């Protein structure tokens, strides 16, 4: 049987292979009494689904809400979850603090780290330059996109040295690639681009001749220049990794404890008349039911 941490690792491997964005949540500090221990971990998906263990239901609810914020902002976050009492717990400047009155005691800190898909590069052609790009790109953290179309490529390199290059450029632009590099001379590249029918904004995404001007001559050197240009665009040129639009996530406020709650199929809820209320856990739901019945 897989341990919780092993299961989380297996889930992460599957998500990375699919190019799915998620948040890795890891308990880095815990003060008894807590059910979570340092090292416990989980993954949080864009729809609020959690796979793994980072504490009881109330703590998990706080992690879920904060993780969605971290994923939206694409920034890591240290989440401090404290009970509604004066608990001596080391202060951490810059940490995101949540006071959860439903905690039975203790306090935990959870590091939330967004895991975004690596930029994918699709290389067209079987030339020496194409082969060299495929060899160099993974060395700088770029993934090679296959021809299945399952992932949108951040960059497309066209190194076919002939064929219908205009159509290849048009297809890459239409598919959403932010960088399209054509391996061709300046004169031939201009002739190819004239056949594409691209708008000015679309042409701004096409680089011809592809690659930084480093005086490259050999196929590996030209490939290095091309990969370098892609990296420069990623770091300073505004080139972004395409990500699937996250599903809409509904949040509510627990009417008992005031905690933010991500509404999902398993969220405790209670219907009273025409209103539906959502809760961080069964305890708050039951207390609210008693209040309505009194």
From TrEMBL:
Coiled-coil regions, chain positions: none
Pfam family, one: XdhC_CoxI
All residue ranges annotated as the XdhC- CoxI domain in the record: 16-80
Domain of life: Bacteria
Matching InterPro entries: MoCofactor_Util/Proc (IPR052698), XdhC_CoxI (IPR003777), XdhC_Rossmann_dom (IPR027051)
Residue span, XdhC Rossmann domain: 146-230
Annotated transmembrane regions: none
The protein's name: Carbon monoxide dehydrogenase accessory protein
Organism listed in the record: Actinocatenispora comari
Taxonomy of the source species: Bacteria, Bacillati, Actinomycetota, Actinomycetes, Micromonosporales
């Amino acid at each position: 049987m897989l341990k919780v941490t092993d299961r989380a690792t297996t889930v992460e491997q599957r998500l990375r292979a699919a190019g799915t964005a998620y948040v890795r949540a890891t308990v880095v500090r815990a003060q008894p009494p807590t059910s979570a221990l340092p090292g416990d971990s989980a993954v949080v998906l864009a729809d609020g689904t959690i796979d793994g263990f980072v504490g009881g239901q109330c703590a998990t609810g706080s992690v879920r809400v904060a993780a969605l914020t971290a994923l939206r902002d694409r920034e890591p976050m240290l989440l401090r979850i404290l009970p509604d009492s004066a608990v001596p717990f080391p202060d951490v400047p810059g940490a995101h603090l949540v006071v959860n009155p439903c905690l039975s005691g203790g306090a935990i800190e959870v590091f939330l780290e967004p895991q975004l898909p690596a930029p994918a590069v699709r290389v067209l052609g079987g030339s020496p330059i194409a082969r060299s790009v495929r060899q160099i790109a993974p060395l700088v953290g770029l993934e090679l996109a296959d021809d299945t179309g399952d992932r949108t490529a951040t960059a497309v390199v066209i190194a076919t040295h002939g064929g219908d290059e205009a159509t290849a450029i048009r297809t890459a632009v239409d598919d959403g690639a932010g960088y399209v590099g054509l391996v061709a001379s300046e004169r031939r590249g201009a002739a190819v681009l004239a056949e594409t029918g691209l708008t000015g904004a679309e042409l701004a995404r096409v680089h011809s001749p592809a690659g930084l001007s480093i005086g490259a001559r050999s196929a590996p050197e030209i490939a290095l220049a091309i990969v370098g240009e892609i990296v420069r665009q990623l770091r300073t040129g505004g080139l972004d990794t395409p990500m699937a639009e996250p599903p809409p996530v509904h949040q509510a406020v627990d009417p008992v404890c005031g905690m933010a709650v991500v509404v999902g199929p398993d969220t405790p809820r209670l219907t009273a008349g025409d209103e539906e209320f959502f809760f961080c856990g069964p305890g708050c739901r039951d207390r609210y039911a008693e209040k309505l019945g009194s």
